[in-house]
Records
---
Amino acid sequence: MRILIVEDDPALASFIRKGLEAEHYAVDTTTDGHQGRAMAFEFDYDLVILDLNLPGADGITILKSLRQVKPNIAVMILTARSKVEDRVLCLDTGADDYVVKPFSFSELSARVRALLRRGHLPVESVLTVRDLKLDRVERRVERSGRRIELTTKEFALLEYLMRNAGRRVTRPMIIEHVWNVTFDSTTNVVDVYINYLRRKVDDGFEQPLIHTVRGVGYQIGANGVA
Amino acid sequence: MNSEPSPLRSDVLGDLVHSLSQPLTTLRCALELSIGQDPQQQIEAVAAAIEQTDRLISVVRRMQKYLDSARITPLKE
């Protein structure tokens, strides 16, 4: 899952990013309102965490324009304003949640999970492709009942492939969702991680699940070139 | 007795809340995320926490200055 943080305080943005990355999200950050709006419009985020007081464009203006273009994207507002009128304005403008500073990271993280569960994403907590199961809540992967231990990135990659089971996903799509926009898309990191996953998910099984789609990228759960 | 703050005081308090909220949030998150991290990350978190504490100290000093000047020139209610 991919999250954009638009927060004018670089130190705070950095800590939120680190915390969310530790929870397996791909996270981009920006401290500028205009840039935040451009990134939210251009890339495919599951959630935008938006500060209200921003240089460039303010949070409410960004929220209004974002809602017109991407009505289904989840948006969480961060602000030091705690008045009821401010909260009503944010929610009426299209925010899905509202967190008042100062807050704890654990609260923010719980609200992120709740928002992402609420309907902007597939509701199932367990993704299944044939005998492969990935539990997004327990962060557990099994194939034919055998537990598979994955690193954070391997888990994120497998989750992305399984969310798109039966569909072809390109390397740039994988980079965009599993890593972040600052990542060098010319590296072979996707192929390297696909190999890691294959060793853990397919080795020892008669039927491989991860397929190479020549000239395109990868696909899980359908015929292709294994 | 009217307990409503004057518009001027509301502005000052609003700025104050914002000035305190930002570093307090960063401080809270930095300390929270340093738990269970490796030593290098803990050092970075403590450095960030000190920086945010300095921001808070600077806010308190500005408040002190404001209070000192308010004593000399009392605010009109």
Note: The first helix of chain A runs from residue 10 to 22.
---
Amino acid sequence: MNDFYGSDKKDALPHEWQQWADKSGDLQQLDENTKAQYFGVNLGSDHAEPRDEVAQVDVPQGDLQEGMA
Amino acid sequence: MASWEAIKDTVEWAGKLIENGRPHASLPRQMANAVPDVNDWQSLTDVKGPQTILWSPHYTNGFGLDVVKFKVALNWDFGARYQNGGAFIPNVWVEVQECRVLWGFDVDLEFRAQRPTNANSSGQPPHARITCEIFGTVSNVINSWEVGYGFTLFGDGHSESRATN
């Protein structure tokens, strides 16, 4: 069991990856290619977008004019 | 000196949204706001919203696995009037809607908001503006990547956003 990485996270992996994770408890035992592919990541989509936008409003003067200096 | 022309915050929460790969158990329902600098700011009317922006980055490894994937919703109420005028933001809050972190990876994500300002010039009705940032790191034992997104929210309901890393 490799608690260093968190066994609960490992449980979220597909079965074959759980087996791989069990075998790779010692990171030094991993071959470099496997290590590079598993831990090397690319950032996928990274954009923010509005959801179900509510209509914008204006900015009225209202009754505030009375209080202006 | 207090004035409805000035804009203040009455809440200024900064903290962890995701820590050690797990969402914060109970995030507050109010993290920031932008209201008139008067004692009776709670008498705001005509609140609209919430407006929501979704930010959902994901990281994919060499095997095609999405090793890190999270979805954060930034929400704000807007259009609030003081004495029937202006456009204020009475509430800003964040929800972590999804957080998937596979074995060997970690995520830490924080939220912070800057002091609110008035987007209008003097003599015009106040238009609240507040800038927030969600930022942090995605990491494993080999590497670490900074991640972040900035959001400027306006009292009329529009927004501007951009990646910060």
Note: Chain A touches chain B through 42 residues (CB under 8 Å).
---
Amino acid sequence: MHSDLRAEFIVEELCAATANVFSTMLNLHVRPEAAFIQRSSPEAQDGVEGLVGLAGNYAGIGALLCTAELACFLSSCFLQMPITCVDEMVLDTLGELTNMVIGSFKNTLEKSTGPLSMSIPTVVYGKSITTRAMKHDQWIVVPFWINGQQLIVKACLSAGVEAGLGPCSKHDRQANSDLKV
Amino acid sequence: MPLDILIIDDSTAIRKVLQRVLRQTKIPIAKVLEAANGSEALSVLAQNSVGLILSDLNMPVMDGLQLLAAVKANEAWREVPFFMITTEGSQAKVMEAIRLGATGYVLKPFYAEQLEEKLRAALVA
């Protein structure tokens, strides 16, 4: 069952979920750039980040990260009204977009992992944001360019305690290593 | 006859989007009421007579399944069509919602046309 959870599979499903949510809810047709694995702590970045936790046989985090400017643009598309500064509604929209993208990703993932539960989204806004997931040593990162700005969609997942497989199987590590920038 | 509709979601943004989508449909709407969780929704229901309920599933305080169970346990509200509109697509959650008496289950993201089609079918029935 768990052998299906390769990095390529995760990238494919993150791309599909993002494209589907953005075209359906924002009328934006987005294309991914080359995906990569981030093993060290990511560089600090200014902007808005939505995070959703996943738990079950696999556990981890899914996240969307973008600049404040792009968060405003996405909110404008979602709400169909002009928005120029980050306010409660922008943070709420980014949380909801994260919920939909990672939720759609989770729904597909469950065919390989078994049932996963999902947390209510958390949104962070500020300068020099760095996200560190305890017990997860690598993020699978898929960048998108939207309206001249970068949107990062990323996930870190590893086999949970319930699965009894330890933090990440050798097979998964090998598969992840094969994913090149 | 125009309906009063209750939307329950912890996201203000999605409540606004749902309001807009509903108003774009041909469903006759009198008033759209909002609540941020199941507990707030029960207070709204106690003070208003609504003809359609659209609820998220994962919410703080009281989630959509708990709300659905409470609505179906109340004689005054049990016949009101109740739709789950959620990202949560796991078979277990869908089955639980149907078992508790949900009229329908709409997965986010959704197109306005898909939502209208499901709602109209239930309202006509």
Note: The CA atoms of residues 79 and 93 of chain A lie 8 Å apart.
